[in-house]
Amino acid sequence: MRPAAASAVLGLALAVGAPTAWVLTQPEAAAGIPLEQPLPATPSVTTRDAAPSAIPSAPAPVRISVPSQGVDARVDAVGIAADGQMELPEDVSRVGWYRLGPAPGAEGSAVLAGHVDDREQRPGALFPLDDAAVGDEITVPDAAGTATRWRVVSRQLITEQVLPLERIFARDGAPRLTVITCGGPFLPEFRSYRDNVVVVAEPVR
Amino acid sequence: MTDPLELPAGEYDLALFPADAADASGEPLLSAMDVAVPAGANATVVAHLKEDGSPTLTPFVNDTSAVPAGEGRVTVRHVAAAPAVDVRAGGEVIIDGLTNPNEESLTVPAGTVSADVVLAGTDTVAIGPADLSVAEGAHTIVYAWDSGAAGYDLAVQTVSGTHSAPSGVPGGSAGLADEGSSLPMVAALPVVGLAVAGAGAVRLARTRG
């Protein structure tokens, strides 16, 4: 064979072979099952029975005690009064738990509140609340016989008109206990106090 | 009923397949094209029978606006193969003339009500009576579904998080906790003290002089 022919064949082989070999050694564009299967576009859904059922309820708190302030009172489950405010037990020696919100220990802010005093019945169960100190322990036993324990982290006097109600009655977030009564200057013309005493406690771990 | 699914806002083609079909293959039993899912919306898609008994898919938008504290929102959706119905609670008509595939809502005090469904304008009971729990601060959605042949039934869905806080927390009425009531005493004692001290000083000066 003449060198010219040999180089022509060799050149042709190189021109065809090199790209072919390159293509053949490339990894495949896809392998295995389609991505759709291990990574579905829509997450999988769980199903449940839709038959009408009663709403399960957590055990209600039955007492509140703050030993360092001499507070120990029975707790009643309360809802909403006719005027849209939180309902409170008539008896000032009892404390109301806002049963429409979280139970103590559940997610969100569990609210316990009581009248600070009454013309006929004198001081209420939560009268000493405005002396509560950071670190004071609060115990709230429930109807099932277990108790939640809390430590006071905050006490503040807030004018009733600017009370942060949405946050006090929040149903989400970390569990906390909010205890409320009245305080600040008494306004005889309204037969009511100007402020609310708000004590917030966090769970004892 | 499935649990809720969070999806990016957009338009979706919905298709319903038999449970034994391979993924998204073959002919869907039912489909709905270009169903809009706006951002922030809460919707339920119901596979049900039309009034004439033929199957269909109907998307409903669930109201998630807040209700007053102590109350709950109830919606009744007519998705049964049946003509117009009335819904009664405690024997009284609360929704009248509801037809497939429509809905009607009302806001009521939270609690349990005994409800039944009757053919519109009659006392002929189609479903119930059943005890319905109306959750406070939530949206309770009741579906009247199925057909006369299979027996009508109720299904319940609850969308929570529509609660409101009370408007305030009342306090006491005697004024005993008013720390300010000791203020006059706090102001008076120094005056008395100064007067006594002054008198003493005067007497001291006289005895010296």
UniProtKB/TrEMBL annotation, chain A:
InterPro entries: Sortase (IPR005754), Sortase_dom-sf (IPR023365), Sortase_F (IPR042001). Keywords: Hydrolase, Signal. The keyword Transcription regulation does not apply. Residues 1-21 form the signal peptide. Pfam families: Sortase. Coiled coil: none annotated. Gene3D superfamilies: Sortase. The keyword Ribonucleoprotein does not apply. This is Class F sortase.
From TrEMBL, chain B:
The chain crosses the membrane at residues 183-205. It comes from Blastococcus goldschmidtiae. Residues 2-88 form the DUF4397 domain. The keyword Transmembrane helix applies. This is DUF4397 domain-containing protein. It comes from the Bacteria. InterPro entries: DUF4397. Keywords: Membrane, Transmembrane, Transmembrane helix.
